[in-house]
Specification:
Blueprint lengths: L1 H13 L3 H6 L1 H12 L1 H49 L1 E2 L2 E12 L4 E5 L8 E2 L4 E6 L6 H83 L4 H36 L13 H45 E5 L4 E6 L6 E2 L4 E17 L1 H6 L5 E6 L6 E10 L19 E7 L12 E6 L7
Antiparallel strand pairs: 1-13, 2-9, 2-13, 3-5, 3-8, 4-7, 5-6, 7-9, 9-12, 10-11, 10-13, 11-12
Helix pairs in contact: 5-6, 5-7
């Protein structure tokens, strides 16, 4: 108690006065500092106060940004399930196309027609590969050529025989014509002779008739005997028969003349045709046979020529084959290489049919049961490209999908229900196979 009170009593008396503090060096320094840095301290205080206020506002701003980002994430990831529920869309989808497998029709060795690599674009009808077979069977082609050569060698001989027969036939025809003309002249002369005989017989008949008339009148008076009358009567009858016989010979001669003019010859010592005419007919028949043989030979030569052309084409097809692309597209898989020996029917390459682009997708069971063939669908690429319109053409479900597609639908494994959409847009023909996206199907109410 004593110490504390004494200490308290001593302290005030011992404290220096303000005037003393300013007079010493330390006091002078402090007063100078106060005058010089009074404004700076006030500025520093204001700056410190504003920094504290901004420091208090920063946590609120950062917290608000985090809340906004969280809300955006929730909105985005919440919108996707909602959109999937509201729309009939696929789980997975890929732009696909059908494959055309080119096989060799013959066996042989492969040679490259042009430089064709994987993914090379090809036009329809482009020759990609060639197959050569140096061991093709050409037996029939050689036989046909030999037959044609034999007939071509025989033809000049047949032509020469035909020309000789035709010449002989013409000569015999000339001889037959001369004989016919001579026979006609002969018969005309005979007819003239017979007509003369008829006239003479008619004159004798008239004379005998007049004699009989005179003898008949004289026999009544007894000047002519009965025997003389009978003789004259007999001469009249003979003259009449002689005239009648001459007229019959004239008729026969006229018949022979008419037959001779028609080419037939009547007589007792020869046939209806003379030997020259018969030989001319035989030679005409021979010339006709030779002409027929020559025509048959020409026909066979022409037929063999056509058969040789056909056989040459067939032999060319068996010894060389051009592998052409039936559609426009690009090489998807090269299954052989130049110099390789292949068998008939062996696949050589696969071509992607760019004109028949399709879209393969898999969907949930609920969406699959609402789909129908012919429904409108839209493929939306994941890269943000232009949508591709199409139509549902196949609903395979959980069954096995077609095997002639570039990308097997089994590769889409998230859902087992598979759908095929045929594209109607030209944008799908760019052959961008493998482009992923999703397919949105047109909604329609299912009948209860």
């Amino acid at each position: 108690m004593v110490d504390r009170s004494s200490a308290a009593s001593v302290a005030p008396s011992s404290a220096p006065s303000p005037h003393d503090a300013r007079t010493d060096a330390k006091g002078l320094q402090d007063s100078l500092h106060e005058h010089l840095f009074t404004n700076d301290e006030s500025d520093h205080a204001s700056t410190t106060q504003s920094g504290q206020e901004s420091g208090r506002r920063w946590p609120y701003l950062r917290r608000g940004a985090k809340v906004a980002i969280g809300l955006a994430i929730v909105a985005v990831f919440g919108w996707l399930p909602l959109r999937a529920i509201w729309e009939n869309s696929s789980v997975e989808a890929v732009l696909n196309s059908r494959l055309v497998t080119l096989r060799t029709p013959i066996g042989g060795r492969v040679a490259a027609a042009q430089r064709a690599t994987d993914q090379a674009k090809l036009e329809a009808g482009t020759v990609v590969l060639r197959v050569f077979n140096s061991r093709g069977d050409r037996t029939r082609l050689d036989d046909l050529r030999r037959q044609k050569s034999r007939l071509e060698n025989e033809r000049p001989s047949l032509a020469a025989k035909l020309a000789s027969a035709q010449a002989a036939q013409k000569d015999l025809a000339r001889q037959a014509a001369l004989f016919r003309d001579g026979r006609v002249l002969q018969l005309e002369a005979r007819i003239a002779e017979i007509q003369t005989s008829i006239e003479a017989a008619a004159a004798r008949r008239d004379e005998a008739s007049a004699a009989v008339e005179r003898a008949s009148s004289l026999a009544k008076s007894g000047n002519v005997s009965t025997v003389e009358l009978a003789r004259l009567t007999r001469e009249l009858s003979v003259s009449q028969q002689t005239e009648l016989g001459a007229r019959k010979r004239l008729d026969a001669a006229k018949v022979e003349l008419a037959a001779a003019r028609n080419g037939s010859f009547l007589g007792d010592s020869y046939n209806d045709r003379p030997s020259s005419v018969q030989r001319e007919e035989e030679m005409r028949q021979r010339a006709g046979d030779l002409e027929a043989d020559l025509a048959r030979t020409d026909t066979e030569i022409a037929w063999l020529a056509n058969e040789i052309i056909v056989e040459e084409v067939r032999f060319a097809d068996l010894t060389e084959a051009n592998i052409t692309t039936p559609v426009a597209g690009r090489v998807w898989e090269m299954m052989t290489s130049p110099g390789e020996d292949v068998q008939a029917g062996q696949p050589l390459l696969k071509v992607l049919d760019c004109s028949g682009a399709v879209i393969t997708a898999n969907v949930t069971e609920n969406v699959y049961n609402r789909l129908q063939l012919g429904d409108h669908a839209t493929f939306e690429p994941n890269d943000g490209g232009e949508p591709i319109s199409g139509t549902v053409v196949n609903l395979t479900g959980a069954a096995g999908a077609p095997a002639n597609l570039a990308i097997n639908p089994d590769a889409l494994s998230k859902e087992p229900y598979r759908v095929t959409v045929a594209s109607r847009d030209a944008a799908a023909r760019a052959c961008t196979v493998g482009r992923t996206g999703r397919v949105v199907f047109a909604r329609h109410e299912t009948a209860p």
